[in-house]
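Run log, item B.
One chain of 671 residues. Sequence copied directly from the ordering sheet:
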Amino acid sequence: MTAELTRGQNHPLPGARLEIRVSAGTPVVAGATLGDENGTIHGVEWVAHPGAPTLPGLEVSRQAAADHRLAVDLDAVPDAVHRVSVLLALPTGGRGPACFGAVAAPFVAVTGLDGDEVASYTITGLEAESAVVALELYRRQGAWKVRAVGQGYAGGLAELFADQKLPQAHQLAGSIHEAVASGLARSVPAPPATAPAHRPDHGTAARPGSDGPVPPASPYDPQGAPAPGPQGPGAPGQHGAQQPYPGGPGEPVTAGQPSAPAGGGPIDYSHPRRQTAAPPPPPPAAPPAEPGQPARPVAGDATGWSMEERLYNQVWGMFEDLARTTAAYRSAVDFADSRMEKELDQILSDPRNRIGGQGDAAREAARARHGQLVSQAREVLDRDVAQLVAEAEVVEPALPAAFARWDNPVWHAYRVPMEIPMALRLGDLHLPEADRIRVPMLIRLPLERGLWIDSGRSASLDGSFADSHEMRRLGLETAVAHAARLLAVYPAGEFTVHVIDPAGSGAQALAPLVQSGVLPAPPAQGAAGAADVLARLTQRVDLVQMALRGGAPDALPPGLDTSQQLLIVNDFPHGFDDRAVNQLRYLADEGPAVGVHLMMVADREESAGFGPLLDPLWRSLLRLTPVADDHLADPWVGHAWTYEPPLVPPGSQVLQQVLAQVAAARRSWGG
């Protein structure tokens, strides 16, 4: 079954020999770059393009065309290569389109040699870009995966190569376009030779054949044989005679080394709702692994334009890996169960096996085979989980405050941020087969739907029992922890929290918000207080919607609070009439699009008197629990994930300290 990828999503590759098919609807130049563990290209010999169509384990097309087929043999790429990036570019100097926004969205697919698709990706969202990194094949824990990238460059190939730290970016881009325009793709000259350099050996690999001369890809000679000389890193000058390019494979890159400026102005490192001003720093190098052992994990070992984005992608890579390995284990156990059941049925169907030792021996043999299959599956699961645990041990301490648990030391160095993070941690996820590892549950900001803290469950997974009063208290404490985290990760004055507590029963749990002064007004009590808050927020939604629909977002009334709004509703439905209920439904449905969010602390059974009227309300909210509960299901593999709320450690003052800084920043900002 083909995996239809979206931007940033990854998928495992079943084999090393693959074909990448490109369909663009207009002639495009197809190529590929070989990158190290940081994604850096160390020389032009690490780029496969129409002028040099073959590299070890890689072959691309020799001309621009609307359809391409790229051959890849991942077992043949050098050991120093950790990423293979597939790139597409529009030819220059012709009558064709100048940007991808003027053509149909390119489509790329990864297939096996039998033609069956493994993964596909439609590159959408391109506008002024004339070059794009479509896919990335990358190593992860000894295995290869494919990731949908879709990163476009308005400056074309020169900007793309410069972004991957290639010193000769402009020269190579010009040579490629000249070769394509002239139709003499194999006549692109190699760069001039330089002094020999000391480089480590990168092992051996087979070089795909070519029907025309291509520049040698050091440390291999033109026929693909390893260069003679001592093998192993650090042998001085062993590849000097065959390495004509500065900054080639294996040569260390000096920090701050200038490179050729990218054409078309500065690179725009863009991300949905975010923008950074400088190229991302490379992720730290992984420490060397023991021989025969998997590579040691390192924090930030994922793609992204900032460390925050790399950590975000790494966390969800861990989630996918845990989901996949658990699904494989469950499938293996199911197979073992069905096989044993079938064997036992066959044994019992023979009357001769029902009496005597022959039948007992056959049954014991079937059970032994079942146990062996389950044991083998468990060994694989334990191995994968151990690797994920090791990765979590290095990732968790490196997480920024928005992604970190409340007991992470990063909160002790907390400062009110200047920009909104890309995501927020709402808790932890784990599976019963892998209870040793907790994967952070991250959701993108700004919130796209409200939250429902379900205070109706009375028993947690550990067997403990809590009465309804205790569950309501825990539910409101969880809501306060979520609200405090939202206040902490937004810049001063850009997030406002309102509270409705009709009966005043949540005074103790709400104390951190009230005493710190982060609330613009005390919690609203009684029916009149609730009606006033709901009326103001629904009016805000109406005004912003009318302004946006009328194309006049600057025409809002003076003094209107344009910050993101969060309404915490405690002890619902007590104290709410039909009008208030309809206003809550309106805020849940229409509010997130204009920056008004709802957080309900409620027991659904207590609101059963409203009948099906509230069913759309509960469906529109993301249900969370104040105690561990296995209610979250992912549609990807169908697992029921156990959710654990991000509670503050008992006795910790971190919540009060963070809220005090938020309140001080709001006062200095003028909020």
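Observations after the first pass:
- The longest strand covers residues 17-35.
- The chain is about 30% helix and 20% strand.
Flagged for discussion on Thursday.
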